[in-house]
Amino acid sequence: MRHLARATELAICLLVLLTTCSAPFGPSTPLAGLGAASNLVSGAMRQATGTPDTAPTSALDAPAPPLAAILSPASTGQLAPAILDRATQMDTYLSGLAEQNAFSGAVLVAYQGHVLVSRGYGLANREQALAATAHTRFRLASVTKPLTAIGVLRLVAQGRVNLDAAVCTYFDPCPPAWQPLTVAHLLHHTSGLADYADFADFSNFEQLPATPEQVVARFRDLPLSFAPGSLYDYCNSNFLLLSLIIERVTGQAYADYMRDELFAPLGMENTGLDPGDFSPLGGTRGYVSGALDIPLNVSNLYGAGNLYSTVEDLYKLAQALDTGNLLPPDLVTQMMTPGLGRYGLGWMIEQRGPNRLVYHPGSMSGVATWFGRYPDVGLTVIVLSNDYYANVSGIAETLAAQLFN
After folding, report:
1. What mean pLDDT value characterizes the chain?
2. Model-level pTM?
3. Which of 339, 365, 386 is nearest to 238 (CA)?
4. Domain limits of the chain?
5. Class of domain 3-372+387-404
6. Helix-strand-coil percent breakdown of the chain, rounded to 5?
């Protein structure tokens, strides 16, 4: 859990103004450099943190629509020359970061139906000299959470889960401390549950396989930290329980439900659950300061952080959200309405200048990820890295600024 080490390194980075470090809260100067062949204008663990009032949580009766064939084709109109220039500028900036060993991973930027950048930078596996591409599978860390949230909200739309329902509806036996908890409290991170990934002994378990029930046992008998709904506290335990609610309602394993309900209908063929041993990743490994990072066994995270995907698969999900057919409109509004801590239902929501940003970051051993959408202007930015120290939020903000400017 090297939060302090990371903070120290970033502080030093800012003090000496190294060009290999992106500014964490603002755009940086584009960097010249070389990279892999590009695809331009193609038609915890170290938990994610955020500082994202409480959104409505009533259940909806509208049926969930089928997901097949809802993805809209990219618009065929010609891009303005200025947008093409900005796409080149983005690629130059990212190639420069990769050349300076400040980034390795994959990036996708799409604007109003046009993919401006979709490619890999640097290496997915340094020992094997395996280049990163737009098809490279990366662990998502906490970018798993919005996907889990969508899975739960699909059940809400089908009338199978109620956001106001007590968590104990789905757990028997249920600890007495959980009696006041609702599904909405879990989605909003306002439950007061203890975050098992912050426990001092988490390092004793993080490299070992675990079942969800074994993980729940680590915190189920602890008291709540505050009255549910009164405070925001980002907590992995919330989304571990949400993935188990999916299983109890559907009778399917979390991985199978997510595949059948979301990934397969949307054509997300390179997205799924990492059983904990990197086996589905095609060789991708995680690094910190150039060395292999702790081989975290993500079975300890389940629906809080153990999915993998590619930038192109996540863009398919973004397209599905943009069609308005993935969830009923009222439920989408609830999902993207900021509550306490600016956190909606599985997403962080902020205002960046005149533009609304709906996003989620992720961070854990050997992973830094960022999945963001500016839904009102049609911009999607996805950054997946296998370098723990990659400043993915700074990179994403720089890319957005390059387009908006």
Report:
1. 85
2. 0.83
3. 339
4. 3-372+387-404
5. alpha beta
6. 35, 15, 45
Phi, psi of 242, deg, nearest 5 = -60, -40
Rounded CA-CA distance 173/183 in Å is 17
The answer to whether the beta carbons of residues 346 and 150 sit under 8 Å apart is yes
Map tokens 């340094």 to a residue. 126
Contacts of 204-211 spanning 24+ positions with Cβ under 8 A: 205/300, 206/45, 206/294, 206/296, 206/297, 206/300, 206/365, 207/294, 207/295, 207/296, 207/297, 208/297, 208/300, 209/275, 209/276, 209/297, 209/299, 210/297, 210/299, 210/300, 211/299
Q: What is the 3-class SS of 77-136, one letter each residue? A: CCCCHHHHHHHHHHHHHHHHHHHCCCCCEEEEEEECCEEEEEEEECEEECCCCEECCCCC
Give tens-digit pLDDT for 284-321.
999 999 999 999 999 999 999 999 999 999 999 999 99
Supply the Cα-derived Rg of the chain in whole angstroms: 20
DSSP tag of 303? G
Phi-psi region of 253 (alpha: psi -120 to 50; beta: other; left: phi over 0): beta
Residue range 182-225, pLDDT digits in tens: 999 999 999 999 999 999 999 999 999 999 999 999 999 999 99
- From residue 389, give the alpha-carbon distance in Å to each of 290, 298, 303, 396: 10, 19, 23, 14
